[in-house]
Amino acid sequence: MLKHHWKRLFFLLLGLNLMVMVILLILFNLPIEDRAIPDQGISEEESISLAIKTNKKDINKLIDHYIRKESGDFDYKVYLDESEVVLLGEIPILGMMIDMKMTFEPSVLKNGDLLLEQRQFSLGRFHLPVPILLKIMQESYSFPEWITIQPKQQQIYVALNQMKLKSDSRLKVKKFDLNKDQFEFIYEVPLK
């Protein structure tokens, strides 16, 4: 009887092994479950925002490069000083070119644009009313369309949201602190 008992156990073990192998073969040959990419809640009309932190030195390089590219003649210069935005240039008055310097106090608006409120100005050694000087400046220089000179309010509105950048991306100011040399911008890239 012992002779037949091991034969049954052998066939039982062989059957179990074959069954495990068949199950494994079936599982290996089943297609992989195709999972959908989780929805991140971003539609085609939306954009992603990238934070940019920089300093005065780099912003001054960028401003200088942009003015050279846009104006061609480079009749004026804009740079960030220790506590103000400075505009240097020449203005034609009575057929003569007279040196001009204006300083502005920047403030960040809720929409990410920049407002430059006129602080001080000098025209050679003469002092003219600021609205007149801004009006002359508006007529003398060709500024990009996203820069609006407002002589009556004695300010310059810098609509960074309207600045034409590649791929319809936009730039917004988040922090503009001249005294601490801290500048933060949001660069929005549309997902189209």
UniProtKB/TrEMBL annotation:
Q: What is this protein called?
A: Uncharacterized protein YpmS
Arranged from A to Z, the UniProt key words for this protein are: Membrane, Transmembrane, Transmembrane helix
What InterPro entries does the record tag this protein with? DUF2140 (IPR018672)
Source organism's superkingdom?
Bacteria
Membrane-spanning ranges: 9-30
